[in-house]
Structures are given as C-alpha cells and as structure tokens.
Amino acid sequence: METPGRRTARSSYSHYLGIVEGESGPERAVSTMRITEELANRNGVLHGGALMSLIDHCAGTLAFALCPPEMTNVTLEAKTNFFRAARVDDTVTAVATVLHVGRTTLVAQVVTTRGDGKEVSATTQTQLFLEWE
Q: Which domain, by its residues, includes 17?
C-alpha cells in the first residue's frame, strides 16, 4: 500500500505488539494480535491499552485505505465498550467497518473477538484526514 511520499499503513509499534494484518481495503480491515504475557494486566488477561492499540491500528488501516492520496489520517476520537476478557495465549481479532466517510473524517466501527468467537469489545472511532508535512 506504498504511495510515493506517503508512509505505509503499518507502524513499528504495531509490529512490536505482534499485530498481524489480514484483509485490508476500503470496505473493511482485519487485524489480529496474540496475547502474550507482556500484553497482559496483573490479572492475566489482555490489558485494555493493548486492546485499544489493536483497535486503533485496525481502524487506522481502514481509514488509510480511504484517505485521499495527498493526505494522511490520525485518530480524533474513540469510544469503547468492553464486554469480556481475553486470556494469555488467546488471539484477538479486530474487524473495522465504515459507518461514514466524509470529506475530512471517517467514522468506523471496530468489533473485537477472541478465539472462541465471543465479542471482547466494540468501538466507534473517528479518524481525521489531514495534510502531513
């Protein structure tokens, strides 16, 4: 997804967390992350901040696919409902879909599930399209 003068959709931070990109395009984006001990909180379940990083990466990837070529995207706002825990050694899958695309913003919904298919969270996130120098 490299465009001259633009960065790729994947960051070194996402690589560090072990986020793996699946499907990626203007309709939806899919990312997965295996839960390691390093990503767990003191209770042995996925840390909310690590989950939010997966969600943000997935929504950002979707927005990047719809971003005008001369622009980039950043997260403007996110609202998440957490439903249930995901444990170490499980894999969480994030699926981002478009709710609205405007001239300067995109609103996405990201639903995460754990390996047994049960929902972990649902997020509504707004991405801003802007010029990047």
A: 12-130
